[in-house]
Amino acid sequence: MTAISPVAVAGCGAISAFLIVFSAFPARSPMAARLKKLERVSEKSVSQRITIIDQIVSKERTSRLQQRLIEAGWYGVTPLAMTLRTIGAIGIGAVTALMIMLFFPVKALALVTGAFVALIGWRFPSMLLSRALKQRKESIQRALPDFLDLLSTTVQAGLALNAAFVQAADSTTGALKEELLSMLAEVRLGRPRTDAFNAMADRVNEDSTTTMVTAIVQAERLGSNLSVVLQELAKETRDRRWFRAEEKAAQLPIKMILPMALFMIPSLYLMIFGPVIARVVTHR
Prior knowledge:
Blueprint: H1 5-24, H2 30-39, H3 46-57, H4 64-71, H5 79-103, H6 107-156, H7 161-170, H8 175-188, H9 193-204, H10 207-222, H11 226-255, H12 257-282
Helix pairs in contact: 1-5, 5-6, 6-7, 6-11, 7-8, 8-9, 9-10, 10-11
């Protein structure tokens, strides 16, 4: 057992490291693949290009994992690469578990610790993806009110909506700018603006962005004053962000109960009863 275990540890570690390194190579993103395919049909008519766009975009989401990767902005990571990362992380956890079992005299404790490490390795890639997804949505929520204010100002100045989006997108940063540039690229390649808007809302999958897209599409369809709609959207988005901040502030007392119970109360007991215990021990 002890003669074979080091070989198993080394082999498992090598395979896991290979899978993680192999999955780290960037793949062609779905957006880049679509744009590359559209460049090859640039000489065709607009109707043919729109048909091809619809055929490509209908294959955007093949799985729940692919949807989460798109929402997180990981366009260069495929579901296969994510699966390989998970397998590699599990392998690293298994290697750690085997090493603990080799060097720890207590086999039961080593087995429990190794299983715990392997479980962390299994969940680690998914935790990173969830964190990236959350940070991307928060970044879009923070940038959206200022973008809507700028978009409203440029529309009031007399620019067309596409030109206003270009000007506003150039002044925006972060994930929102990336999504806006992707949407504008699809519009320039011949996709209907409404479909490009809805595709952006589906990729982001965030409430404020979906509300913005729905309001702009409805305002254009009904002939409403777009600048007024954009101003109302900016105000509503800021109010929603303020409500989220108030909600998080209201949750802080509940979240502080566990740290207080683990750290403050024992320290308080130590400060109160520590001198008494020390005096009793010294007088014995």
